[in-house]
Amino acid sequence: MATLVDEWRRCGVRDVVICPGSRSTPVALAFTRREDIDVFVRIDERSAGFFALGRALATRRPVAIVVTSGTAAAELHAAVAEADAAGVALVVVTADRPPELHGVGAPQTIDQRALYGSMVRAFEEPGVARLEAALSWRPLARRLFEGARGVAGRPGPVHLNAAFVEPLLAEPLTLPATRPVVAESSTPRDAAALDVRDRRVLAVVGAGTAPEVVRTMHELRWAVVGDATVSGSLAYADPLLRHDRIWEELRPDVVVRVGGVPASKFLAQRLRTFDGDILALDVATRPVADPDAVVSRRLPGLPCETEPRHHGDERYVELWRGASTALDEQLTHWWGDDLDEVQVARIVVHSANTHGVALMVGSSMPVRDVEWWSATRQGPVYANRGANGIDGVVSTFLGVAQGTSAIGLVGDITMLHDVSALVEDPGTATHAVLVVSDNHGGGIFSFLDQSREVRADRFELLFGTPRPHDLVQVARGFGHHGERVTSASRLRSAIELGLERTGLSVVVAEVPSRDVNVARHNELNERVAQWWASR
Fold first, then answer.
1. Integer angstrom CA distances of residue 179 from 4, 11, 134, 145
2. DSSP labels for 120-182?
3. Which tens digits make up the pLDDT trace of 509-529?
4. What's phi and psi for 308, nearest 5 deg?
5. Percent residues over pLDDT 90 in the chain
6. Of 31-45, 76-90, 172-186, 447-461, where does mean pLDDT reach its minimum?
7. In whole angstroms, what is the distance from residue 99 CA to residue 115 CA?
8. 97 CB neighbour count, 10 Å cutoff
9. What are φ and ψ of residue 357, in 5° steps?
10. pLDDT value, residue 192
11. DSSP state of 460
């Protein structure tokens, strides 16, 4: 294992997350012997997997995670699924018992071969280490690293199932000789067939899109709208495009799709009925998502900003920018000091922009309110938008925040779902503020047909799922700062103080009921239509 760890360090691994266990002792010791690798120990494997995912998102480098054999390896499955769908590089190392201990009732033994199926970019099971196979160890480590980084395809998780025999403690021998490490690949720039000269180009950009891709699109004179994770895109696409009159004025000639799909169903509906070209550019860490089969042509690479044929109509960009800016100015007048879920999202984004810190957004309503109703995100924004689940969001946030400053926004059910993340102390180098919109249940279901067609008591039982826990006391019970706020001014102040405080601060924002939240969203959308008509 010392050889594999040495090769991974040479390739670029800087972080490893280790979960305690006996069978994984050789791997854990090999990593901790290295002073040039940051080691994070987490006791819950499920939480650890998402923490590693957060580190990989923030550092944009493959992160290793080590667990022992048995159900510990199975606990990583959710994080592997998210990393696969989101294109996040993880090097998953599961310890295993040797073949002779399988099928004989040995404890902590399950079938770990290809445990994660097709979700991993590469799977290796070299068997118990033999000295005569030493020359194969560096190539093995390199194959796994390059698979995680996406040298021959998309980035994502890889899996090494490593069997160990007792004794599990030993000193490493002389390591095999090194070989040159493959150079970093660059973004392909070969979309030569594209010709959008002076046309109205709308780029619909989703998760997995790097900031430099968005900047290139701006230089190409394309109007760029995106999901919550996209920095630098034009804001308020969803409330603008909900209305036919606004859509007619902002209708593009060509649509370009990159990365995942935004959360807006209305934007998706506009694309389904769009009668022009919809082009897909494969330049993100994940393929262009096309669940509605609207893409007419796929092009590899990113257009060149110096090629006139790739430049769109600047007047169209200004039209979009003017609409976005004008609505942003209008929205600031539609709230007082009272809190609602949209106001919470707007304050959180504003705080992240003002302080220049990363933002982690939870699934369900937070990611939608950030995408639909917040200003343009100026810094890095993260969300588990691969599989789109609420699992592990707090752990991912703490992985993103580790050693720096960051703000997270989640709902109360998402926090409770990942409450084991609070077991860990982020340390004095971390300034993490987790804002929780507490509407006492699963708010997104109130927007769905279930809320109208299922009897009220049954809806609350199966979908609303309110829980009686005091989230402030939950946070304090794990040793973190916790406070409840009921006004916009107090929320702003709590975020400010939390970013100054070391460790984790949990700020619970008390918001109106889920039914009131639905009514508030409807009211805002009606106001947008009235505002546009009166311009």
1. 13, 11, 14, 14
2. SS-EE---S--GGGGGGHHHHHHHHHHHHHTTTS---EEEEEEE--S-------PPPPP-PPP
3. 999 999 999 999 999 999 999
4. -60, -30
5. 81
6. 172-186
7. 16
8. 22
9. -115, 160
10. 62
11. I
Count of C-beta atoms within a 10 Å radius of residue 199: 17
Instruction: Tell me how far apart the alpha carbons of residues 139 and 120 are, in angstroms, rounded to a whole number.
Output: 18
* 2-163 CATH choice from 3.40.50.970, 3.30.470.10, 1.10.10.10, 1.10.8.100: 3.40.50.970
- Is the backbone peptide bond immediately before 167 cis, with ω within 30 degrees of 0? yes
Whether pLDDT at 432 is above 70: yes
Which 3 state secondary structure label does DSSP give 459? helix
Residue 210 phi, psi dihedral angles, 5° rounding = -75, 150
Helix (H, G, I), strand (E, B) or coil at 535: coil
Instruction: Quote the tokens at residue 253.
Output: 């000639």
Q: Across-strand partners of 359? A: 381, 407
List of residues 6+ apart from 99 with CB closer than 8 A? 127, 163
Q: What is the pLDDT of residue 170?
A: 67
Task: Give the pLDDT confidence of 337-373 residue by residue, as tens digits.
Answer: 999 999 999 999 999 999 999 999 999 999 999 999 9
pLDDT of amino acid 187: 47
Reported pTM: 0.92
Q: Rounded mean pLDDT of the chain? A: 92
Residue pair 16/39 in contact (Cβ under 8 Å)? The answer is: yes
Q: What is the pLDDT of residues 36-49, one digit of tens each?
A: 999 999 999 999 99
Strand order in the sheet with 38-41: 38-41, 15-18, 63-67, 90-96, 157-163, 123-124
Q: Reduced to 3 states, what is the DSSP secondary structure of residue 482?
A: strand
Name the helix (H) or strand (E) containing 498: helix 488-500
Mean pLDDT of 193-221: 93
The token duo for 319 is 């039209």
From 395, 362, 386, select the one nearest 49 (Cα to Cα). Answer: 395
**DSSP secondary structure of 255-299:** EEEESS--S-HHHHHHHHT--SEEEEEE-SSSPPP-TT----EEE
| CATH for 201-326, options being 3.30.413.10, 3.40.50.300, 3.90.1720.10, 3.40.50.1220 | 3.40.50.1220
Length of the chain measured in residues: 535
Q: Sorting pLDDT into bands at 50, 70 and 90, what band is 284?
A: confident
pLDDT tier at 186 (50, 70, 90 boundaries)? very low
